[in-house]
């Protein structure tokens, strides 16, 4: 059985190489996003968080004309879903695995336990479910982005050799040298054999 080269084996284990801008963007999200999300989740001023949620609900639902259909409680649940999407999408882009969903559920449980301990925030099972759903959406989105970016990178790598061979002078489409041109009316080269297939006699 043929053995794979070390480079090919590594490529199969790690998947297609991602574009550098995508990797940098995912790393930037992982560095900066926890600061904003952590300030919102870990603050002890629960009333400030509620007031912020109501203000955002009022502005968004008013602009969309959905103020009567979407209550502040529903909007808060949707916000808890959206809160976990960017972070876990970035994680899935860099390290593709669905285990990040379990990590998101564990993180949400830890946050709710902390909020219950400080006494000024309320524990809510709906928040845990919403955060876990957001983690699942984020992981799915990250895997889709990674797959799309990887397929584009593979297509570019396969197109480059074909373009390079097409630009090489002196090669035909089949990759062989072109035959010598013939001039109309020119005598044919002697083969050294007579009509009967034997050698010609030149006495």
Description:
With 203 residues, the protein is an all-alpha fold. The protein has one domain (16-162). It is built from 6 helices and no strands. The protein has helices at 6-14, 20-42, 46-64, 72-94, 99-118, 125-167. Helix 2 packs antiparallel against helix 4, helix 4 (72-94) runs parallel beside helix 6 and helix 5 (99-118) packs antiparallel against helix 6 (125-167). 16% of the residues are buried.
Condensed summary:
The chain has 203 residues and is mostly helical. 67% of the residues lie in helices and 0% in strands. The chain has one domain.
Give me the number of helical elements: 6
Span between termini: 63 Å
Q: Whole-number radius of gyration?
A: 33 Å
Measured as a percent range, the helix fraction is 55-70%
Number of domains: 1
Structural class: mainly alpha
Keywords: Membrane, Transmembrane, Transmembrane helix
Region (Disordered): 154-203
Biased composition (Low complexity): 169-187
Pfam family, one: VanZ
